[in-house]
Amino acid sequence: xxxxxxxxxxxxxxxxxxxxxxxxxxxxxxxxxxxxxxxxxxxxxxxxxxxxxxxxxxxxxxxxxxxxxxxxxxxxxxxxxxxxxxxxxxxxxxxxxxxxxxxxxxxxxxxxxxxxxxxxxxxxxxxxxxxxxxxxxxxxxxxxxxxxxxxxxxxxxxxxxxxxxxxxxxxxxxxxxxxxxxxxxxxxxxxxxxxxxxxxxxxxxxxxxxxxxxxxxxxxxxxxxx
Length: 226
Known about the structure:
The chain is α/β, with parallel strands linked by helices. The protein contains nine helices and six strands, in the order αβαβαβαβαβααβαα.
């Protein structure tokens, strides 16, 4: 998953090189942490993203999103206007090109819900990455008119196990919508296992079942447009 335009080429190269080893998906996008660094006027980066999606039919869009807690080191403030512009542009592109998205969301769940509710079209599958919202908010996403069946909820040990509510949120979400995530540049087997064990505990099933169902869910996500 790439987070800014300068990473897109090397991410694509790594994905192509790993196809034979079972890699199932690759995403290109602009993360909210870097939204203020791309050109919001000419939007040349968006044209480049569209071209990459056109050339590679198996790509998804991500990681995109909103983050009210992010302070840009270049300016010393949260560049939320740039985030909104960047997020909406990528979400609309993904919807138009029928590509799944991976979405980062910190302290913006209600706003993001409203944005998506106001759109005429949404991507075919939407992964709410390292989901930190409430169980009630998850239920609202799942009940969204026309689009509720498109949402998945990812959980990673490094982010989600710091919050006491996480296990109760996992309990409330249907197993067919849960994703197991590392949220790391390096695939950390220990953290993946810890999160897998936590999901198993919340759902009352074993680790092997969690691995199977989250793998199946991930495949449904990245292939929703194929």
